[in-house]
Amino acid sequence: MDEKTLDGIIEKYPYPAGRTLGILREIQLQERHIPMDTLKLVSVKLEVPLSELFALVTFYSFFSLKPVGEHLITVCMGTPCHVKGAEKILETLQGHLGLSGDTQDGKYLQTTPDNLFTVEIARCFGACSMAPVLHVDGDLHGYVTPERIPDILEIYGWKR
Amino acid sequence: MSLFGSMNRMVTITINKNQYLAEEGEIFLLTAMRLNIDIPHLCYEKALEPYGACRLCMVDLVTCGKTTMTPACTIKVHNGLEILTDTPQIIKHRNLLFELYLAEAPKSEVIREMAAKYGVKKTRFLKKIVHEDPLLGKCILCGLCVRVCTEIMGTCAINFINRGPYTVINTPFFEQNPDCAGCAACAQVCPTKAIVFEDRDAERVMQSWSGTTVPLATCSSCKKSFAPEKLMHKVLDKLDPAIIEEIKSLCPECRRQHITRKVIRKVPKS
After folding, report:
1. A96-to-A71, A100, A105, A144 alpha-carbon distances in Å
2. Do A58 and B173 touch (CB under 8 A)?
3. pLDDT tens digit string along B26-45?
């Protein structure tokens, strides 16, 4: 992100309340991740220590340090979805997209090598009646079964 | 009684059914330490505000006959304060906590010794094993190093990273941090001696903080390096400029000799 765009974002937050997180949120939305250089620039401009910003970015699951793919798949891992087999859904997704289940930082956020899909997990969307559910770019898919996953992925440009 | 003499009112407090005199407003943990009443603790540091992070100094606070478990470092002494330090509830809590600490920091001798002192030698929990841990598997995440770096040194070079069981303390992006002054205050306050650094020739390498390297100032007299340059600048800023010029570039040892010689010269020979 160039300095001008960043200045534009910072200008929108003249008051200290919610400033840092608000700015970081806009960077995440625009860039689809938090680039290292931008974070360093924010630290200089806001006069907030870089270590503090890095702690925030690594704490909240909303922020990601690696670029998020074109389509964001969020799998609900809330209790009702878990009971209805969300674990299987996630495993099937990983199998189709060639992702591993490992995590180093406690956030589950993985992107396919072609940068088309990113899979993340979340707790309860509040759509438990349709469990198990998953979100793709904000579209809710309910009553998901492992068999239906390829059909859902195909809508977003996945090829078998 | 504090170091600077008693300024506050002395009040009577009850610890384990015995009555003692204590200064009003004093931190209860310090009162107990002064009275030789044993309370284990890890995260208390007198330079910082009590934080109650380690939960080891838990005692039973008695109010109107009811007990509440409270960390001793967050209790301020007042008249009629009643504390029980070794009820079965406290002992059970403390032993469980020792087991958790043994699993969290399996390499720490401090924890092992302290736990053994209270009769805890084994842990039922899965030991946390991290390969090539910069904090040597000794960190208990009490946050003292982060607080001393931010609140006292004002550098904020390190902070918590990630969350939950993945939380670690390090520099941002796990790379060398130019903000670090190399003061090693973090290593000084660490209760489990987890932070390592090394002085090599004219630089200090903070091995725990992603190998952050800071230059050391060299003594103009004996040519030995003695303190991080950035720290020297910070300290010199606070001194009387008249004093600085003379002793600016001397290490403590040479400084002592220099001043002694100067004073001796002033004394007339009898």
Report:
1. 15, 11, 24, 15
2. no
3. 999 999 999 999 999 999 99
